[in-house]
C-alpha cells in the first residue's frame, strides 16, 4: 500500500474532471484519479454538440436559452444555476475554441451551429441553431483538447486506479481509497479536497447508450457515507438508440433534418408537437414512440421500433455532418442511412439526478444545502440542478465545462485558506479491503453477469419511460432480492492483476445501491414531470411536487426520502418563467 498526498484529488477524467484540473493546475498540487485512461471516458462518445447562444447563424440570446432549459426541465431545474450556465455559455465556448477544439465552421469561418431538441427562438416560437459541434464527434474533440491542456500543465494522472471509498476524518472529507487495477494493490490518497466527477450511470438498464464503465461508483460511495442523492427518479431515455443495441444516433441527425416515421410512413411527431415536431425534447419524443408502438404503428416483425429517415439529406451532408452515426448504422445494423431509414428505439441515456451540489460544485448534504467540508462534485454524477426533470440535448457538455470550472475556482479558494491536510484515519482502508477479501474468499455462488443481467432487465421492464404503481412495487421487491443475491456472488478470477471479475462485482454492488434509490424515488413521486412519466398520475402536480427529492440509503438497504425546494429566481423576476403546461 502506498500513501499519495496532493492538495486536490479529482476522481474522474471526463470533461468535468479535466475542466476542473485545468483550472487548478499550476495554482496547487492537483491529481486526477481515473479507472479508465482519460481518453476512454464516456465524454468521448458525445456526438451532437455543446450549446451556447452565440447567435452565429441566427439571432439568439442567453435568456431564450435559459427559458428553454427551465421549460425543458419541466420546471424542476434550479433557476439560479440555469441562469449562470446560460449566461456564461458563450464565453465558455470561445474559451474551448482557444484551448484548441476544432469546431465545424460556417462559410465565413465562425463556429457553426445547428438546431437541437427543445432549443427555440423567442420563448418557444421555432427551433433555433444553438448547438456548436465538430461533425458528430463533439465530445471526442472536447475531451482530447482538455486532456492535452492538462498534460501541458503537468496535472498528475493516476490512470486505471479505481476508487472504492472516501476517507473521512472528524466529518471532513480528506482523501480516497483506490485499487490499482494493474497490481491489485489498495492505496490511500490523502488530500485537502476530493472532487467526484465520476460520470453517468445508465448501465443499470438493459438498453443503454452508456459505456460499460458508467456504473455509478461515485454515487454508491456517497450513499455508503450517509450522504444523500438528489432527484434519482429522473432518468432520460433518448428517442433514437439503434434498434436492439441502444447505441446512440445523435439528435443532431434530426437537427440536420432527419425525421421519425411509423409503420404507415407518417411523420408522427407532427401530431404531438406541431411547432417543433422532430425537435421536441427527448422525454416527449420517447413517450410518443412508445405510444405509436402501443397503438400498433411500430415497425418490424414485432412492431417494436420506428424509423429515423435521413434519405432526403444530401450525401455530402451525411458524410460531413454525421459521419460517425452513419458508420454505426452500417456496421451494426447493415443499414446505409443515405439509402434506407435507420430502425431506432428509446435507449437509457442520461441521469438528471446525482450528488447534490451548490452552484460552486460543493457537495451539500441536506435540504438546507449544508456543505460537506472538503468535498466537491461536477458533471453527470452531480446534480446542480440545471437539468431538473429532463435535460435538453447539448446542455450536458456545457454543464461540464461551466460547473467543472466553477468547482475548480471554488476549490482553489479553499485550498489557499486551508492550512495542512487532515490525516486519514488508521482504519481508512478496512472497508475496501473487507469487500475485496469477501469476494476473493467465496468459493461458490452466482456469477456477476447473471445477477447484473437480471438487474438490468428488471430496471428496463419496470423503471423506464412509462412507470406505474404496479411495476414500481414489483421493482421494490425485485431489488431486495437482487441485493441479497449480490451479497453471495462468486467470482472466478482470484488473481491480483487486471482482475475485471472482481471490479465488475464491486461495480454491481454500487449499481444495486443507486438503482434502489431510483426505484424508491420513482415510487414515491406521484405525478408526471419530465422524464418521470407515471401512467397512474399522468399530469404534473406543482401544488404538491414542485420540489427536489433527496434520498438516503441505510446499511440495512432502506431508503429515506426528504424534499428540497426548487430555486425559482427567474420566475420571481420575469412572469414568462412561471410554471405552465409544457407544449411544443
Ligand atoms: C453516447 C452519448 C452521446 C452523448 N452526446 C452528448 C452530446 O452530444 N452533447 C451533450 O451535451 N451531452 C451528450 N451526452 C452526455 C454527456 O456526454 C455526458 O453527460 C458527459 O460526457 C459526462 O461527463 P463526465 O465528465 O461527468 O463523466 P465521464 O466522461 O463519463 O467520465 C467519468 C470518469 O470517471 C471515472 N470514474 C468513474 N468511476 C470511477 C472510480 N470508481 N474510480 C476512478 N475513476 C472513476 C472514469 O474513469 C471517467 O474518467 C452523451 C452521452 C452519451 C452516452
UniProtKB/TrEMBL annotation:
The active site is at residue 282. Flavinylated by SdhE, about 5% flavinylation occurs in the absence of SdhE. It is found in: Cell inner membrane. The modification Tele-8alpha-FAD histidine is found at residue 42. FAD binds at residues 12-17, 34-49, 217, 380, 396-397. Residues 7-397 form the FAD-dependent oxidoreductase 2 FAD-binding domain. Substrate binds at residues 238, 250, 349, 391. Pathway: Carbohydrate metabolism; tricarboxylic acid cycle; fumarate from succinate (bacterial route): step 1/1. InterPro entries: FAD-dep_OxRdtase_2_FAD-bd, FAD/NAD-bd_sf, FRD_SDH_FAD_BS, Fum_R/Succ_DH_flav-like_C_sf, Fum_Rdtase/Succ_DH_flav-like_C, SdhA/FrdA/AprA, Succ_DH/fumarate_Rdtase_cat_sf, Succ_DH_flav_su_fwd. GO terms for cellular component: plasma membrane. It is a peripheral membrane protein. One of its GO terms (molecular function) is flavin adenine dinucleotide binding. Pfam families: FAD_binding_2, Succ_DH_flav_C. It comes from the Bacteria. It catalyses: a quinone + succinate = fumarate + a quinol. PROSITE patterns: FRD_SDH_FAD_BINDING (PS00504). GO terms for biological process: anaerobic respiration; electron transport chain; tricarboxylic acid cycle. PANTHER family: SUCCINATE DEHYDROGENASE 2 FLAVOPROTEIN SUBUNIT (PTHR11632), SUCCINATE DEHYDROGENASE [UBIQUINONE] FLAVOPROTEIN SUBUNIT, MITOCHONDRIAL (PTHR11632:SF51). Belongs to the FAD-dependent oxidoreductase 2 family. FRD/SDH subfamily. This is Succinate dehydrogenase flavoprotein subunit. It comes from Chloroherpeton thalassium (strain ATCC 35110 / GB-78).
Amino acid at each position: 500500500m502506498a500513501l499519495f498526498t496532493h492538495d486536490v484529488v479529482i476522481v474522474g477524467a471526463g470533461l468535468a474532471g479535466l475542466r476542473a484540473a485545468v483550472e487548478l493546475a499550476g495554482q496547487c498540487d492537483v491529481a486526477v484519479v481515473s479507472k479508465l485512461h482519460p481518453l476512454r471516458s464516456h465524454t468521448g462518445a458525445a456526438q451532437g454538440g455543446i450549446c451556447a447562444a452565440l447567435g452565429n447563424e441566427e439571432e439568439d440570446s442567453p435568456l431564450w436559452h435559459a427559458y428553454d432549459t427551465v421549460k425543458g426541465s419541466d420546471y424542476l431545474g434550479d433557476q439560479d444555476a440555469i441562469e449562470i450556465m446560460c449566461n456564461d455559455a458563450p464565453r465558455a465556448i470561445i474559451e474551448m475554441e482557444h484551448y484548441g477544439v476544432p469546431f465545424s465552421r460556417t462559410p465565413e469561418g465562425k463556429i457553426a451551429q445547428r438546431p437541437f431538441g427543445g432549443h427555440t427562438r423567442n420563448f418557444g416560437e421555432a427551433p433555433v441553431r444553438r448547438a456548436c459541434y465538430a461533425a458528430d464527434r463533439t465530445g471526442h474533440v472536447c475531451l482530447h483538447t482538455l486532456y492535452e491542456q492538462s498534460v501541458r500543465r503537468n496535472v498528475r494522472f493516476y490512470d486505471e486506479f479505481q476508487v472504492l471509498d472516501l476517507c473521512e476524518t472528524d466529518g471532513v472529507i480528506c482523501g480516497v481509497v483506490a485499487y490499482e487495477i494493474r497490481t491489485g494493490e489498495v492505496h490511500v490518497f490523502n488530500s485537502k479536497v476530493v472532487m467526484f466527477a465520476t460520470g453517468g450511470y445508465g448501465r443499470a438498464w438493459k438498453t443503454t447508450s452508456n459505456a460499460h464503465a458508467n456504473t455509478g461508483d461515485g454515487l454508491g460511495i456517497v450513499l455508503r457515507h450517509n450522504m444523500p442523492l438528489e432527484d434519482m427518479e429522473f432518468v432520460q431515455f433518448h428517442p433514437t438508440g439503434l434498434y436492439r443495441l441502444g447505441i446512440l444516433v445523435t439528435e443532431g441527425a434530426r437537427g440536420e433534418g432527419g425525421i421519425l416515421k411509423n409503420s404507415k410512413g407518417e411523420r408522427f411527431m407532427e401530431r404531438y408537437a406541431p411547432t417543433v415536431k422532430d425537435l421536441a425534447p427527448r422525454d416527449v419524443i420517447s413517450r410518443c414512440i412508445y405510444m405509436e408502438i402501443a397503438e400498433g404503428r411500430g415497425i418490424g416483425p414485432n412492431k417494436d421500433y420506428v424509423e429515423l429517415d435521413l434519405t432526403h439529406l444530401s450525401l455530402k451532408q451525411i458524410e460531413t455532418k454525421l459521419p460517425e452515426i452513419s458508420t454505426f448504422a452500417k456496421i451494426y445494423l447493415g443499414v446505409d442511412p443515405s439509402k434506407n431509414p435507420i430502425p431506432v428505439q428509446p435507449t437509457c441515456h442520461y441521469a438528471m439526478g446525482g450528488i447534490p451540489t451548490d452552484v460552486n460544485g460543493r457537495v451539500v448534504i441536506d435540504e438546507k444545502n449544508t456543505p460537506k467540508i472538503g468535498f466537491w462534485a461536477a458533471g453527470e454524477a452531480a446534480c446542480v440542478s440545471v437539468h431538473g426533470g429532463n435535460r435538453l440535448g447539448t446542455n450536458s457538455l456545457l454543464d461540464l465545462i461551466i460547473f467543472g470550472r466553477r468547482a475548480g475556482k471554488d476549490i482553489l479558494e479553499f485550498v489557499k485558506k486551508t492550512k495542512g491536510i487532515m490525516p486519514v484515519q488508521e482504519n481508512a482502508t478496512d472497508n475496501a479491503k473487507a469487500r475485496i477479501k469477501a469476494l476473493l474468499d467465496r468459493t461458490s455462488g452466482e456469477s456477476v453477469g447473471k445477477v447484473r443481467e437480471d438487474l438490468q432487465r428488471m430496471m428496463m421492464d419496470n423503471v423506464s419511460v412509462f412507470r406505474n404503481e404496479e411495476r414500481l412495487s414489483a421493482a421494490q421487491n425485485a431489488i431486495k432480492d437482487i441485493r441479497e443475491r449480490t451479497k453471495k456472488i462468486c467470482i472466478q478470477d482470484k488473481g491480483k492483476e487486471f482482475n475485471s471479475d472482481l471490479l465488475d462485482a464491486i461495480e454491481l454492488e454500487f449499481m444495486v445501491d443507486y438503482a434502489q434509490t431510483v426505484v424508491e424515488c420513482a415510487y414515491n413521486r406521484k405525478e408526471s414531470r419530465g422524464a418521470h412519466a407515471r401512467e397512474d398520475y399522468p399530469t404534473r402536480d406543482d401544488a404538491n411536487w414542485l420540489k427536489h427529492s433527496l434520498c438516503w440509503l441505510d446499511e440495512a438497504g432502506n431508503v429515506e426520502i426528504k424534499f428540497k425546494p426548487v430555486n425559482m429566481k427567474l420566475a420571481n423576476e420575469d412572469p414568462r418563467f412561471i410554471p405552465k403546461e409544457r407544449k411544443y
